[in-house]
Structure of Glutaminase:
Amino acid sequence: MQALLDQIAAEMATAPDRGRVASYIPELAKIDPQQFGIAVALPSGEVYSAGDAATPFSIQSISKVFMLAIALGRLGDQIWARVGREPSGLAFNSILQLEQENGIPRNPFVNAGAIAVTDAILQNRQPREVLAELLRFIQAAAEDDSITINQAVAKSEQATAHRNIALAEFMAAMGNLRNPAALTIGTYVHQCAVEMTTTQLARAGRFLLGVPGAPRLVSLARIRRINALMMTCGHYDASGEFAYRVGLPGKSGVGGGILVVAPGKASIAVWSPGLNANGNSQLGTLAVEKLARGMGWSVFG
Amino acid sequence: MQALLDQIAAEMATAPDRGRVASYIPELAKIDPQQFGIAVALPSGEVYSAGDAATPFSIQSISKVFMLAIALGRLGDQIWARVGREPSGLAFNSILQLEQENGIPRNPFVNAGAIAVTDAILQNRQPREVLAELLRFIQAAAEDDSITINQAVAKSEQATAHRNIALAEFMAAMGNLRNPAALTIGTYVHQCAVEMTTTQLARAGRFLLGVPGAPRLVSLARIRRINALMMTCGHYDASGEFAYRVGLPGKSGVGGGILVVAPGKASIAVWSPGLNANGNSQLGTLAVEKLARGMGWSVFG
Amino acid sequence: MQALLDQIAAEMATAPDRGRVASYIPELAKIDPQQFGIAVALPSGEVYSAGDAATPFSIQSISKVFMLAIALGRLGDQIWARVGREPSGLAFNSILQLEQENGIPRNPFVNAGAIAVTDAILQNRQPREVLAELLRFIQAAAEDDSITINQAVAKSEQATAHRNIALAEFMAAMGNLRNPAALTIGTYVHQCAVEMTTTQLARAGRFLLGVPGAPRLVSLARIRRINALMMTCGHYDASGEFAYRVGLPGKSGVGGGILVVAPGKASIAVWSPGLNANGNSQLGTLAVEKLARGMGWSVFG
Amino acid sequence: MQALLDQIAAEMATAPDRGRVASYIPELAKIDPQQFGIAVALPSGEVYSAGDAATPFSIQSISKVFMLAIALGRLGDQIWARVGREPSGLAFNSILQLEQENGIPRNPFVNAGAIAVTDAILQNRQPREVLAELLRFIQAAAEDDSITINQAVAKSEQATAHRNIALAEFMAAMGNLRNPAALTIGTYVHQCAVEMTTTQLARAGRFLLGVPGAPRLVSLARIRRINALMMTCGHYDASGEFAYRVGLPGKSGVGGGILVVAPGKASIAVWSPGLNANGNSQLGTLAVEKLARGMGWSVFG
């Protein structure tokens, strides 16, 4: 395992096409695209890693996985009255389907859907209560209390959140927002700014392994469902491609991280800031494909 | 296993909401919606079944799985120049994305994509050669030489194939059709008219199990990829829902059949002619969900 | 003329299908749908009227005509860098095309386009300055200083402006908004709340007649262009229908008013609060059709 | 008038950006883009012309105007059960709206709508009967019996008619086609291949002037309605732009011709084979704009 990770990290270090760092969030635009980290956590918490696996980065949309788990715990299947379970066939921040489908986002992993989930978790609470709950969840999953939010990133995102505010206000117009858009989006940009190292993220993902030894934060039935959604919707309009090439459920973030689950076997995290055309980490996707092939991991046979 | 199947068949026999039989193909519209069959084939070929598992039905779009396997064998990755690998977010027979995406269908399991696959397999051959190749493939997978095409169904579909012809002609206009539309659609309606019993279909699906004992018609790498596509795209715009509820790759047909793969464990076939709003078997989906839950089968944990 | 108007008003008084009053703005939802007013102003200012032509109503989107005239005066053709000149083929408040067309609204008469126009007029000024300029323009056109804004309606619209805020924030995300969305939308809801009687509106429309005697607030070249846009885009996705049935340029408002121009001949205003499925006054459209036919007015022959 | 036409023709002769000749119909792709012709016919039939006004060209979509007039004569308002009256907001050959709007094309001037009109006129007749009726209509309007169909162009279009066949088959699938697609499209490609000189076309357009002296082939009420449709839908997704710049109803064809009506005053034809991005004659549009401005012709004031 360690040898395979070292080999992948070495290959990635010299990869010529590293994608492009997300430019619309100023704080993220500064990140050095040369960085690459990979980590594999076994159910027990034992971690293998290579590259820049100890460098903290912004988990961005990977936070949607933890928030969905929290929402299912708080609201159960009621959450599905506010968000669907289908791949969108469109970009992560599209507003088009929202108009065509009465303000109900396609799934919890596109921006509109994640905003609806955050709004549902908020209820009548303050954003800081929800963010504290999210950090507690992630810290428990990673068994690491040091994980926190990068306020500079949150502030930077808040300043350029026009499109997310548009999604929230549009849902408000369709009756699918319970809190003021400013409150929900304020919470949302902070959840995206949670900062973790690749190693921490791999450890946190163990709650989706569904086997003894891993932290048990949600039931096996819910683990399966969250993994299913990661498989069909976790990489926006490249989810089919990820399933085809990697064969494991995963969730990417615009910060360049990807969390991947080999059910029962291992939680994988990878990070490289350069993104491909669909907004997923260019080298991260490639690295996970190599790892899965090398280990023979696939849920499909 | 047998007890579970019997119990499911009994429940389905009295289900009040059985969906609606496809009405646009006259021969299919005649089918009695009261029927229900389920069968589970182990890698070895051993089959458990219940209900009307010995009644032949039209596999329709399930044929797309076999054709994709043949296309991958004949053309390898070249097939992906003509069809994508992403869920569509739209109905099975939508022409909209074809216009927005330059005549390249979203995936091989929506109608346009399957027509492109059939067209690619045809090359300069006659339709009957391709259909003979398909039947040989299915017969080998099922280890059953009696499987054939229902000519009455094919003829009935040909007469109402306007929308599929439109898809083919539109692809021709965009440079993504190699044969005359009449030839490709003629082949396509016949492949949809392959007739199998639920038991035969369950046996034929074993080629996707990827374990010793099952017929090995394609490589393990391809098995995984076909299963991945069934997971993300196998149920049209309800693929996310099927992944969420059942947790196994599957492909539905408008004849009411569904082929489901529990990788390494079993091939499952179910049949009930009434369809839900997305064009998938209403009771079939429900039955497979119960079976997967009862057996603890899920690729997601 | 008077006899024709009296006859139309009498017919409209007993029309059984009066459409539905706009319900999404609480203040408008209270309006009595039994009301109907019609007025025809000759270039000289002479007015013929019938029905409730002296009752003030909210001009709503008809304000977009006056604002476009002001924008053309202030910015000239530069305004066309921010908004197009084509019918949309979609509903008045659609956000879909904004996404597909890089944040440039289709025309100045759909909501998004009108918001872009308001934003362009605002520049670095305060909303009250812009609103004062609008009132001065309308008062000059109508030669009536008593026209003002209904603050209760403005406040009511502000409280339910989620969709318009979404349009503004989306344009901000695409780089097509210069002022904070709150400022632009604050101005926009107030311009919609200008209150006029049918007679006042008919008199105000004379600035589009393009003949001596009528107030000359814009050049003949601009009059023609504004009228052209009213013809192709003035009734949202029913503009073609209005051109076909009435044959004159017009602009409708969700308050139930319609301003119609018979170039060189007369300015027509009609008001009836009940709307048809496209958001245009049901009886207003019918009444203008009868008037145009009765007078033989059409720009098309 | 003659001086103005000569001046326009001289300017157009040296215009650097002439657009691009339609390439998808091989016979049209051969045409020399240097050509330019313009002609103005007064109601009496007196014609002023300049440039290559005596060179025959393919009228293509301008035939849709004559066919609509015939359809209104044969079927009256029943034709509107099969086609709408709204601008599409999309390209001339789009199939997208057909899917979203149940197979009812937006208007008679987009391809799908014109195919529906042709299909409606066909009824149970042979294509040659319909084509003879069309030629008689055009010959009567132009008072010129020499106008005929270019069979080479028709044959060339037939060979590349995939997209139009797709539109027809899609409408067939939605229940909006009465004849076999091959028959309707066969008629359609021949109607597009009618060949006329610019002078002949200008003379033929007089039937839309609505004043004594011009050939009276349809009632004044219908003239107004046809002109209204030309204004809102005659230039595909650049109809708003044409109304804005020219201010007169017109219909363009992919052969580079445009027929424009100055109601009561003159019928204008212009021809230059190079097209702009919307599929309308680049120089033709410009020339008509100059002519209308020079003459002070506009329906809008």
